[in-house]
Prior knowledge:
single chain; alpha/beta; Aspartate Aminotransferase, domain 1; 2 domains; three-stranded antiparallel sheet
Amino acid sequence: MIPIAMPLLADEEADAARAAVLSGWISQGSEVAAFEQEFAALVDAPFACAVSSCTTALQVALAALGIGPGDEVITASHSFIATANSIKYQGATPVFVDIDPDTYNIDPDRVLEAITPRTRAIIAVHQMGMPCNLAALVALADRHGVALIEDAACAAGSRIQVNGTWERIGKPHGRVACFSFHPRKVITTGEGGMITTADPELDRKFRLLRQHGMSVPDTVRHGSPRVIFEDYLVVGYNYRMTDIQAAVGRKQLERLPELVARRRAVAARYAELLGNLEGLRLPAEPEWARSNWQSYCVCLPDRVDQRSVMQNLLDIEIATRRGIMCSHREPPYVKMRHRHELRHSELAQDHSILLPIYAQMSQENVAFVANAVRNEINR
Ligand SMILES: *Cc1c(COP(=O)(O)O)cnc(C)c1O
């Protein structure tokens, strides 16, 4: 079976987890602090705060920005449902806008049309690791005085070109960027997330919110020769990462450049092998973007049926997934009045499929998948 994805975990990660277990401190502690510093250094962010997932990262980001009932947050429906749910958790209203069909990313022109006096933030997703049009979105957010939050769940290791230099996603381009370390992403800690920002006040709020609003963290009290009483300053959450996860994450971070290079090689090979197929649309990488290729999504010609293609591939032991979901079609969102056209989002969900991609995927398997897709298109 060729799986849709496969994390690359080995002895280094297992040894690191073992050491954390045996250290006597397994909740959020020195491994989490080191992981945060190393992540911040890698992406060139002044601050990085580890949390339990990207879903909690997005919620904490919105909460720290003071977004709540009555506020509108513009985002893509065409995303994993956690993007929209994070807005709902805060009691705010998601306003869904359409994507650019070539990159599957939010279209800045549609964002502009959706801005109202109630708009407080934009959550822009770097979908499947492909950087969204940050230059346009940052300018737009600044001009309208709204916060830009990057849902970078899939985008660890992706880059954009800014004034001629390549910068990693996570260097604060927007106000906040949120990452995921779920096993479907490029690096993993089992579950886990990271929030980067350049704003020290926001970082302070993230740290309060992830740990019950506690004024003095347990690590500090534990290490102090004097008795310290803590306060609980705000209604916070328990969104901590454990030291076991962070120890694994530090090893994954060391592998990140290599993992991205290998994924880029797989994507380049798919592009070569599938480039001249009549009616098959390959994902576009803008010249200012370098994807980490968290997923490789192809849009099928109208004449072929998505489900039959997926079934035929599964029958020869190739796993695929349908295109990214649309949140506005799911029960919690279906009854909302959607003000904006979401045609490209729906077409992408109904006509695209994700092909297997992972760092350790062999040349033979890439060729086998490409050949099977070719047979389906030419059937
Ligand atoms: C995976 C994903 C999330 C959720 O990440 P978790 O760490 O699993 O909570 C959010 N947004 C997008 C775009 C994702 O792909």
